[in-house]
Amino acid sequence: MAVPSFKEDHISQLPALKLLMNMGWKYISPEQALEARGGRTSNVLLETILKNQLQLINTIEYKGKEFPFSDANINNAILAIRDLPIQDGFIAANKAFYELITLGRSFEQSILGDKKSFSFHYIDWKHPENNTYHVSEEFSVLRSGSSEHYRPDIVLFINGIPVVVIECKSPKIKDPIDKSIEQHLRNQQEDGIRALYQYSNLAMGLATNEAKYATTATQKEFWSFWKELFKTKAEETAWLDKLQALKNQPLPTNERTTLFQERYKNVWTFFQNLEKEEQAVTEQDKLLFSICKPERLLDLFFNFTLYDDGIKKVTRYQQYFAVHNTLDKIVKTDSEGLRKGGVIWHTQGSGKSLTMVMLAQLIATHPQIKNPKIILVTDRIDLDDQITETFKKCQIPVENAQTGKHLVELLSGTGDTVITTLIHKFEAAVNQAKEGFDSPDIFVLVDEGHRSQYGTFNIKMQKVFPKGCFIAFTGTPLMKKEKSTANRFGGLIDVYSITDAVEDGAVVPLLYEGRHNLIEVNEKPLDNYFDRISEPLTPYGKAALKRKFSSTNQLNKAEEIIYARAWDISDHYEQNVQDILFGSLKAKGQLVAPNKTTAIRYREFIRQIGKITCEVLISPPDVRENYEDAFEESDDLILKFWKAMMDKYGSPENYEKSLISSFKKQDQPEIIIVVDKLLTGFDAPNNYVLYLTRQLKEHTLLQAVARVNRLAPGKEHGLIIDYYGNLENLDMALETYSGADNYDAADLEGTLTNISEEIKRLPQAHSEVWDIFKEVKNKYDEPAYEELLQDEAIRHIFYEKVSAFSRLLKLALSSFEFISKTPEQQISKYKQDAKFFLGLRIAVKRRYFDDLEYKEYEPQVQKLIDKHITTEGEILRITEMVNIFDKEERDREVEKITSKAAKADHIASRTIKAINVKINEDPVYYKKLSRLIRDTIEDYHQHRISEADYLNKAREYEDQFHNGRQDNVPENLTGNDTGIAIYNLVNEIFKGNLKRSEGSQNIAALMAEGIDEVIKSIVFENGKPIIDWVNKSDIEGRIKIDIDDYLFDLKTQQGIELPFDLIDELVEEGIKVAKLKYV
Fold first, then answer.
1. Tens of pLDDT along 439-452?
2. Which domains does the chain have, with CATH numbers?
């Protein structure tokens, strides 16, 4: 009965190629591609195609006539794209390439005796049909500084330029998409094939029912899924129907021949059978169909790829569709010539600011919008450079409004204008404007952090820009009253909620914990002192004063409370955050203080305590900074602090930039203390924990907690530690923001997870580990636990359950609520059991020689255990792996194990794992030895042999693994490792045809030696294997033919019966052995 194939080529690579060809990509074989590369694997440009296309898409228009570019200029253009500045670094070269293909070049040429510079392009962005689109596979590229090659599975070319690199994986392997991404990242290393990736704009990982994409040099955590979004169900159905039809559309005969001619006949037969019935659409089909349609791909490259702080980024699906949905809306005008704007709600951390930049670029270049003036209003200083960089390819200058007056001047000018400004400067300009600007082509894009445009300021904006189009970007849910205001100038355009972002992996979940100080008040002296200072006041004044100083806000500023919280924050950070690394960056924290004075006091106390480093970032003070109230004591603490900062940094701008840069990129400061600054518009992926010591409300709270939801390598979640009581638990938060009729409940869903909800899973996780050992009768007998775990399936369940329990225990031990509410006896039990389980895990991994597979969080768990679990100075550590081919090292490791059975388990397990590494080098011998070892393990565990016999046999088989293959082999094969493997194959495959006699053994030996000689005669040149012969189908074809001829002659000479199907099997298996031996 026919069954599906899980081979990578069958299930992923060939289906991808076929779909791409049906989508309009012309297939060229690896041989044809190499010919177009001039026969050089160090060259990745299809130069014959590139040259032809450059001649076709570039002409010079001069005095009403068209002229071609000279051959010299065409060659110079090829030289420019070939010689990218890789010496300046891989990223710099890729950026230079991107600017080259989007901006183009200018070349001088004499036309009719007149010498001028003329624009030259590599891709026709405006007319996609003028470009050529090719796809090739197994694209062999010479590695840097090596004679070896890497071969990406699929490469897409536009005009002969490689722009997309694809790696395909079988879905049956573990974590296939991760494997494909890791392969891309390996290829982009210095010793990889950067010569190819310096040109690529997209990389993809495909595994049938999983698919992700990213741009060049993107870390694994930032690779994305794509979801095609539709306005109607009918639109979605039509899209799926079209994809289904393309998936099942047969290739034209000539294209099918080209695709399959270099493959084995059985591959073509398999696909013929597969195509007899309709095939289902897969996730990889959806990604390819969504992104790789030529028009879409050009759109993504030109309009949706940009650089943010030097990092190349490509759009996520929600950004792409938000921009196009907005464009569809704003290009239309109503009967009065007005354009409707609206609000784009994309949750914090989903690239909202970059979406605004992408939209601005498309507005500026849209053919239906004439002479636009675009104002980008942000609260991010660092966006200016990025906006200027993006508009370079549109050849539109960007102006930065330095003051409100300057902004008015810029708006009064003629021509296309792109203006960037900060929110407070924009407000000043609106307030200063004496006359309005009545152009319908003024677009105001506001990345709001303060919601001010929904109030009276919105009315002022509309007076100044009566025909302007307003588009607001928000990262937090709109309150219902805000939605009604927003509706008056366009309503919601696009929504990407918090739940969407968490599901897509665009942000990390947030865990929340409330903490409280136990406050003791010495009431009598306080009341006496209060009566004295308030004596001049009226009863009403006294009551007002008392209310003010007894409020939570005032208590938050009490020195004892600040000091107590500084200790708690220092302890929490030191024990739970300080040792965490996200990639190469330390995890950091952000402390939100009630006011500037309190922020500076937190800094002083945390520095005195000395466990962690911190800095304060505040806005400049004025001369009356601390005189906020007639009754409030004044001091010059803030002014002194500010003077010290200015002496150190020179200016407020340098002070802010330097601290932010150090926080993001250096080890210190570990915590940055703020009041209002950095609660919005601040993106630091390594920002992990937010300590709240003041009240925050509504969207301000949600914006603040989103500071710690950014993605980073190994970052599972962000932490919110709340000392004020902003959200005592998740239920209360949801009730506050949705039950009070402020927010729609659906908008808030998924924002935070209370840390206590996670910790509630700890008892269950603890029980699940113990449940594995229900059958162990003597709970004090440690070897009995190890014996139970000899079953590999049970062992891996144990590893997973222990990891889950350890992770939750780490979280629990960082929680004040858990520590304070859980009996000490129970905490001690958890710690003791964790120590036992981790020790048992070490023991069984050593005994059964399992590979230590660390999850990203496990180094953190180990540090937690080192801190929280000690016994008389003992520290739990995981040992180094032993080299299984170093006998002395092996013996030393074995001696650490006490019982004979445990030693035997260890030797047997490591021998089986060593066999698995080498099994394909001599499959017959090693499979037989593996079976013997497994039978011996079974005999011992069924009590058919003693511990001593078990250990002796384990040692005997290990010796056979290292030394036994050369025993009892025919003399002509002594020392011939490959010949012995083929000899074993001959005896196994022809065991029914060669009689067991001295003569038959000689025939088998002769056959093995002859096959080995045939293979070596073809794959060796000058005593060395031909480079990359294992991937050259012509060499493999010659081997098969010559072995067939040799065996046919031998069969005739010796008069033996060799069935053709067994000959075919021997040839296939013999070539597999040779591919491992002769490389």
1. 888 898 887 644 54
2. 8-291 (no CATH), 315-504 (3.40.50.300), 558-752 (3.40.50.300), 760-868 (no CATH), 887-966 (no CATH), 971-1077 (no CATH)
